[in-house]
Amino acid sequence: MNLISVNKISQSVSGRMLFKEATFGVDSDSRIAITGRNGCGKSTLLTLLAGQKKAEEGEISWNRELKTAFLEQSTCYDGEDTIADFVLSGDSREISLIKMYEKLVGNEEQKLDSDKLAELMAEMEDLDCWNLESRIHSILSELGIGDVNSKMRDLAGGMLKKAVLARTLVTESNLIILDEPTNHLDISTINWLEKYLMNSGKAIVLVTHDRYFMDSVCNRIFEIEDGNFFTYEGNYSRFLELKTLRQDSLDKAESRINNILRNEAEWISRGPRARAGKDKKRKERFFQLQGQVPGKKSESDNFSVAGRRLGGKIVDIENIGKAWGSKKIINDFSYSFKKGDRVGLLGGNGSGKTTMLNIIAGRLQPDKGNIDTGVNTKIGYYDQLSKELPGSMKAIEYIKETAEVIELRDGSRLSPEQFLERFLFPKGMFYTLIENLSGGEKKKLYLLKILLSNPNFIILDEPTNDFDVQTLSILEDFLCNFAGCSLIVSHDRFFLDRTTDFLFVLDGAGGVSGYSGDVTTYYSEIESAGGNKVSSAGKIKEKKKVVKREKKGLSFKEKQEFGNIEDEIMMLEEEKKILDVKFSSPDTSAAEFGIMKQRYEQLEACIEEKYNRWEFLDAKR
């Protein structure tokens, strides 16, 4: 049955065309994902389909039998309402009867009116309300909403999202429209939501950056690109294959975006389940080889900043503990980070993931235990809140505050403008005041500034919430080539699979276990174990012990040398930065360039020697 017919609709914003002459239908068996860059009009299209807004051009026809449930990114609610009030705030007769029943039997202070109850139950029987009530309780239980009497104003981000999602799912409908349904949800809830939607028997139209979610749930993909509207039959894997073919036909096979598509197509075509249990490094090597265009070097290869050199000690965590009131968040946790560690942090909503990140980053003190950060460890921390950016500053000026020249790991250099382009920041926005940027563009700018600050330890707290799929692919390439350490919290399984190979798993009661492998394999093993904890996960401190060697101490002369060596390194690094700026100056002659290049190589060798000496002395202390 056809539910919605869309005929040649066009929509613009502030004179900019979002999409033009889009024509398609939504049938009762359609499960559609809409994809495209930030700001292309994905959410706008959802509001048009929901009938909340009229298209500027074209027509949309809705079937009389259509009943729509719409999950928007932002939802209004009364903070004084309980979760139960909010979830059951629909206006259908069935919902009204269930609310009356719950109120009647739940009021212990009032004498139960048996005649009224019998009359109510009879009408509920006629309208099959008991099945609906059972479904409501099942959904609340699966979403982990236990206390339905909690006030909406007291809910944190993850639980608030679950309450809004619950209201959407219990609404009587044959079409569910979802705008970023996985944002702020933990991975277990996302896995459940996938299965629920696939078995719902309802039509679905959604916008999400979660590629595994699209691949599992959807059977059609709509893409908005440069104002054009494209439709593809099949799931996300098939979309990548078909889009690559279309790009080839347009002679864009060697473009940056197409390389990303080839990489993703190869990665995801093996399927989340197929990847479980396979060797991670072998997969990544195969992924890298398949992503290269024959005879050409992909721009994503080695796309990562050079990064400050890590010392022998990075971050040592010893027996830390943290609690909020009576709730234990972390209990007796120890770990020693090593160069190249790529760690993902898992746990349910409210389990303490952000708390742990803040402790490791030095923003929050543990109640007990010690955090020992190496003197040469520089942490770049992208948090969920992100600081307020200076609105009166232009985007490019904000980036240039951090670096005038960006050196990559392969020795090549980029200007700030080129770096922004690599991350698909719109050229037309370079000289736009930050206050005029969208929320997603501000988040991207903030992330790029952190990446350019020369960190050797990157911490990311839910980096995928505000970025489109293309930007996430580039960030994944960046992190895969990053030479330092990374610690990431994300609900995006695809993102974690590509960027991590070891997991910290928080149980919400203070326990932290370790798992060597990727997220897909971890959850596959949990499913095989019937939902129990994975047997191969163990205490972190048993997984990687901090080996303490007997130290003989420094001589008086060595102590003096150790005290001065960091300042010497900083002076050499400053001279390198000055040369970096001069390299990009149009006033530099060829002769001067040759002399500077020779000095630059001398500086690099000297810095390397100083670092080696510093590590030796630091280990001996």
TrEMBL record:
Keywords: ATP-binding, Nucleotide-binding. It holds the Pfam family ABC_tran_Xtn. Residues 1-251, 315-532 form the ABC transporter domain. Gene3D superfamilies: P-loop containing nucleotide triphosphate hydrolases, Valyl-tRNA synthetase, C-terminal domain. SUPFAM superfamilies: P-loop containing nucleoside triphosphate hydrolases. InterPro entries: AAA+_ATPase, ABC_tran_C, ABC_tran_Xtn, ABC_transporter-like_ATP-bd, ABC_transporter-like_CS, ABCF_ATPase, P-loop_NTPase, Val-tRNA_synth_C_sf. It comes from the Bacteria. The keyword Transcription does not apply. PANTHER family: ABC TRANSPORTER ATP-BINDING SUBUNIT, ABC TRANSPORTER DOMAIN-CONTAINING PROTEIN. This is ABC-F family ATP-binding cassette domain-containing protein.
